[in-house]
Amino acid sequence: MSAKQLRLIILTLAVVLLLWGASERLSRGSDTVTGGFSLSAPAPADVDTISLIKGKDSIVLARQSATAWTVNGRRAALDGVNELLHALHDSAPPELVAQDSSSFGRLNVDGATGRRLRVHGPGQPVREVIIGARGSEYGSAYLRRPGDSHVYLWRGRLATLADRTVDEWRDKRIAAVAPDSVVLVDVERGNDRYALRRAGKAWTLDGAAADSGAVARLLEKYRTVTAAGFATPAQADSARAQRPARRLTVRSARGMSVALVFDSIPGAFWVRRTGGAAPGGETGVVYRMNAWDVDGLTPASRSLKPTAPAKP
Length: 312
Known about the structure:
Oligomer: single chain
Shape: elongated
Strand order of the largest sheet: 4-3-2-1-6-7-8-9-5
Strand content: 25-35%
Largest sheet: 9 strands, antiparallel
Number of strands: 20
Mean pLDDT: 87
Structural class: alpha+beta
């Protein structure tokens, strides 16, 4: 055999081995195969409705204005909606993990167990994807497009956000009052009733000098009043029938900023906003606040009195 023939045989064998290796890699459907999948999510400004559907349960986020969204008819937290819109774009390249329908049940991407995410926008095609079980990596999940047999591993916050309940999407802000705007605070806490009034740069407590540091810390708590959750319809009806355990009214020079009533329950309070022009809060909604947070908003009057000087 000549040297030329030997080189030809070696070259042919090398080509065969390369083709065989490529064929084996692709035929296994390896999870390292990337590409071929993109949500092609629109810009946040081009989205007006986001639907999350699982079985008979559905969550619908709807844009009302550039800064206001609702979730199932209730005011939604804008930060949460923005997180979801960013999560549609935020991911490492998805990895192909399965290529036929036999994997749908195992990866929870079938119609019965998966959560459908639909994104709508005026003049935009509907984007839809089925989000399934969590992947082995933190924050990852399996997903596919309806009608497509390919399943991908998606990395990012999309699955975590899609698992939120309706209450987790709702706006928990009850009120937001700028401390510098406050001129009067009225508190009713059982038999402990008092009024804090601004007197120039100082404050008085029922006509006597108040502890300026304690008042400053109290006013800071009114900057953002946030609930821990919401009452169910039955709990809300019960709360409205009760006599309030506490009341809080905060006023500015322009009028009432916010008025709240508190109904005591074990370890917490039901809170209703009954008036005021401060932003935040929904009319008729009964919020749940932790007891220590309510204590911070309506402290005992003794905590606002100046500390007596220590005796020598």
